[in-house]
Amino acid sequence: MYGVLVNTRLVPEGEEPKTWQDVLDPKWSGQIVMDDPRAIGGGFVFFSAALVALGEDFLRNLAAQKPVLTRNIADSANRVARGEFALMIPFALGLFPQVKDVPTVKVVMPEPGAPFVLQGISIPAQVRHPNAARLFIDYLLSDKVQAHLAANYLRPVVDSALDAAPPEARDLLSAPLLGTSDPPRSEERLALAAEIFTD
After folding, report:
1. What stretches of the chain adopt beta strand conformation (E)?
2. Second label for 161, Cα 20 to 30 Å away, from 24, 26, 68, 102?
3. Alpha-helical segments (H) within 4-65
4. What is the distance between the alpha carbons of residues 144 and 197, in angstroms, rounded to a whole number?
5. 157/78 Cα distance (integer angstroms)
6. What pLDDT digit, counting tens, does each position of 67-112 carry?
7. Hey, what domains does the chain have and what are their CATH numbers?
């Protein structure tokens, strides 16, 4: 799941983006570091979800904010923490442990929801041990594994496992979902991202 990382020294309490549309406020112009949507990754997931849920105009207006595009997402979080940027878009909740104790940042989940990466499992039609495969899937869906995912800032598929999430991340992990990428349309959307987000 992806939200927004906010520098609390540059963004006063209560002025964080509450909706995705809020990041289009002119006050954020030049103040955003963004995972590059022109390559496969979190920025592209955000681009794909926003294209469907928020529209192409939203993305063009976001590009007009002149975000700094990067592929180094881990360092981007540090740059927000240092005050180089007010916002990081999108911020993967999996990086939350890296910043959760940093006093100069916080994570917000703008409405209407969080872009996300869908992870799944399947059994091939031809498999040597189908019962073992089913048992493995049962294990992955078990309370133990689902609680482990939640404890590591990943959204479980079993809602009751959210109780295992760290308290500071529980609300973030239970946010509504905005959308995700559409692999068959990736080439088309990467081309659109390259057209919208130019250097």
Report:
1. 2-7, 32-35, 68-70, 87-92, 105-108, 114-115, 177-179
2. 102
3. 42-53, 56-63
4. 42
5. 30
6. 999 999 889 999 999 999 999 999 999 888 888 889 999 999 999 9
7. 2-118+175-196 (3.40.190.10)
The structure tokens 């959204």 sit at 155
Q: How far apart are CA 60 and CA 195, in angstroms?
A: 10
Pairing of strands 32-35, 68-70: parallel
Provide the whole-model pTM: 0.90
Encoding tokens for residue 28? 């954020």
* Residue in 114, 99, 94 with CA at minimum distance from that of residue 45: 114
Q: Tell which wins on pLDDT, 131 or 168.
A: 131
3-state secondary structure of 48: helix
Task: Supply 35's token pair.
Answer: 């995972």
Q: Which amino acid is at 175?
A: A
Query: Phi and psi at residue 21, in whole multiples of 5°?
Result: -60, -30
The residue length of the chain stands at: 199
